[in-house]
Design a protein that fits this description.
InterPro entries: Sex_diff_modulator. It comes from Oryza sativa subsp. japonica. This is Os08g0470540 protein. By secondary structure, this protein is an alpha+beta fold. The protein folds into 2 domains: about 90 residues, RRM (RNA recognition motif) domain (Alpha-Beta Plaits, 2-Layer Sandwich); about 130 residues, no CATH class. The protein is about 20% helix and about 35% strand. The chain is built from 5 helices and 11 strands; from the N terminus they run H-E-H-E-E-H-E-E-E-H-E-H-E-E-E-E. The protein is extended.
C-alpha cells in the first residue's frame, strides 16, 4: 500500500504564477550576458566541475574568482563568468581543450527549456474571508498565485478600516482558464521556521525538533467579472481598440 510521499502518490504537475520584477529582470540580464552551458564533452567519467573550471580558466587566461563552474541539469555544467567580456570571448571560441578533456559550450538562455503561455482572461475577483491581519498586497498575490497573476488591487489594503469596507478584497487578475479558479481556498499560516533576519529561505543540516504546526483560514473566491480576449476583435491598424467579450 502506497504511503504519503511515495512517488506514485505525487501529482503530475501544477502551475504557479510569479510576476516578474526589476530584481528578476536584472538577474536575467546578468545571467544571459555572463553565463554559458556545456553542450558536448570528451572527458573521462570522473571529470569534475573544478576540472572544467581549470581548463577554461587556463584557455582564456582567467584569474581566480573570474569563473565558477557547477554541476547542472539538463546540461552537464554551467559556467558563470564574473565579467561579460570574458563570457563573450569564451562563447565566441566555443570550446576549450587541455589535459585530455575537450569541452564545448554555448550561451546560457533562460527560454531554452521554457514554453510559452497566454493568459487570455482578465477577471475581477473578490476574496471573502481573508483574516484582517493578512490584508496585504503580497498576501493577496500569493493567495491567487496557483491560478492567476495579479494585475491590481482595488481595495485599500493599507488603511482598510478608514475606507469603511472590510468585507472582501477586490482585485483584478489574469488567468489562462477561469474555470480552474477554485471556489474555496485554505490559507495556512505556519510558524516561523527560519531566521527572520534572512531575506531568503535557508537550508539547515539539522532537522526541526518536532513537526510543524499552522492555522488555516478559509477564503472564498467570487468571480465578479470576466473579460474574454479569446474572442476579441482586433483592428491591426489600431491594436489598442481591442474589445474583449465581458460577462458577470
Amino acid at each position: 500500500m502506497a504511503q504519503l510521499g511515495d512517488p506514485e502518490t505525487h501529482l503530475l504537475e501544477d502551475v504557479l504564477f510569479i510576476p516578474t520584477s526589476h530584481a528578476i529582470d536584472a538577474e536575467l540580464r546578468e545571467w544571459e550576458s555572463t553565463a554559458a552551458v556545456t553542450w558536448a564533452m570528451r572527458a573521462p567519467p570522473t571529470v569534475t566541475a573544478k576540472d572544467v573550471e581549470r581548463i577554461i580558466s587556463d584557455e582564456f587566461g582567467l584569474r581566480a574568482g573570474e569563473l565558477a563552474v557547477t554541476l547542472h541539469h539538463p546540461e552537464a555544467f554551467i559556467l558563470k563568468f564574473k565579467h561579460r567580456s570574458h563570457c563573450e570571448e569564451a562563447v565566441k571560441q566555443g570550446f576549450a581543450k587541455a589535459r585530455g578533456i575537450e569541452v564545448h559550450f554555448i550561451q546560457w538562455r533562460s527560454l531554452k527549456n521554457a514554453a510559452g503561455s497566454a493568459l487570455m482572461y482578465r477577471v475581477k475577483l473578490c476574496l471573502d474571508g481573508v483574516s484582517m491581519h493578512l490584508w496585504a498586497p503580497d498576501i493577496a498575490e500569493r493567495i491567487i498565485s496557483r491560478t492567476c497573476t495579479l494585475e491590481t488591487v482595488e481595495t485599500d489594503l493599507v488603511h482598510p478600516v478608514d475606507a469603511g469596507d472590510t468585507r472582501v478584497i477586490s482585485l483584478w487578475a489574469w488567468t489562462p482558464n477561469p474555470s480552474r479558479i477554485h471556489k474555496h481556498v485554505w490559507v495556512m499560516i505556519t510558524r516561523q521556521i527560519r531566521d527572520p533576519q534572512l531575506e531568503s529561505v535557508t537550508i539547515s543540516e539539522r532537522p526541526p525538533e518536532h513537526w510543524q504546526q499552522g492555522v488555516k483560514h478559509p477564503v472564498l473566491f467570487h468571480i465578479e467579472e470576466i473579460h474574454d480576449y479569446t474572442v476579441a476583435a482586433v483592428d491591426l491598424r489600431n491594436p489598442k481598440s481591442c474589445r474583449p467579450a465581458s460577462r458577470t
